[in-house]
Design brief:
Length: 283
């Protein structure tokens, strides 16, 4: 689907595998200056708004939001939306400092319910790696440093006394190949499953997803979905790409994403998003 400058009002981009270049470890993935400068030029010269939509938590997503002219940032696949990134910091986004009315939208579930689900899953699969993400702390039964080197975590048995009361963002799991069928069958009806990069399973509030968060962005930013272009690479991006009027997959995307995309741009490691914006919105 071809896009024209006069009908695009919002660009939404995923981070990992889409806007960021790859690297041997999660923490080493990076944003090139070409991509950052192209998005700044698009935003400043054309008036097209820009938003990030990522599975990353605040601790690993905020640095990219600070480098880009983001009008909104969707963290945790839609569990947290920030509508004033220019005035946000780690303390505000994790609840240690009070946000202005309407600045943040949280779509989660009660931490007591999260503990119940984790205990139920472990009763059936005792060696399952599982945890709760809440205010950018991971409460887990495993050492998260095997996957992420910099994220804050606490070892827990998921007792209500061990996990603070509040709104949890998601439950995370790393089931082995032998555990996956059993784990999938145990997921309660009040949670939806998203899978990132084939290994990280995330149990979310059914409304905490990239499609519904994009609908919220459109409503709050007063743009129609037909005026949005979305860039993505993974299965969790399919919903928002289908909702947007223009969908662009990077060439390295999952085959299912490539199949539903209106267009394909060069791969993330070739600055595909920047090259598409340069050609279609700045060319």
């Amino acid at each position: 689907m071809s896009a024209r400058l006069d009908d695009i009002r919002l660009v939404v981009a995923d981070l990992d595998g889409t806007l960021l270049h790859g690297a041997p470890t999660f923490e080493e993935r990076y944003l090139t200056e070409r991509s950052a400068e192209t998005i700044r030029r698009m935003h400043d010269e054309t008036g097209v708004r820009f938003a990030i939509s990522t599975a990353r938590p605040v601790s690993t997503g905020l640095a990219f939001a600070e480098r880009l002219p983001a009008d909104a940032v969707v963290y945790l696949n839609g569990a947290l939306i920030d509508f004033d990134p220019a005035h946000s910091d780690m303390r505000l986004l994790t609840g240690a400092r009070t946000a202005a009315p309407g600045q943040l939208v949280k779509v989660g579930f009660d931490s007591h319910r999260a503990c119940e689900v984790c205990r139920m899953m472990l009763a059936a699969i005792p060696d399952l790696e599982i945890g709760i993400v809440m205010d950018d702390v991971r409460y887990t039964n495993f050492d998260v440093r095997k996957y992420w080197r910099t994220q804050t975590w606490r070892l827990t048995d998921f007792s209500d006394a061990d996990v603070p009361q509040g709104v949890a963002d998601k439950i995370i799991m790393f089931p082995t190949a032998a555990q996956r069928e059993r784990a999938r069958a145990l997921i309660p009806d009040d949670f939806d499953l998203s899978i990132s990069e084939g290994t990280l399973w995330m149990l979310m509030n059914p409304k905490a997803n990239k499609r519904d968060s994009l609908a919220t962005l459109c409503e709050r930013l007063h743009v129609g979905p037909e005026t949005v272009v979305c860039f993505g690479d993974d299965l969790v991006d399919i919903g928002m790409m289908g909702y947007a009027g223009h969908s662009v997959a990077v060439a390295n995307a999952n085959p299912k994403v490539l199949a539903i995309a209106g267009e394909i741009c060069p791969a993330n490691d070739d600055d595909g998003v920047a090259r598409w914006l340069e050609e279609h919105l700045l060319g």
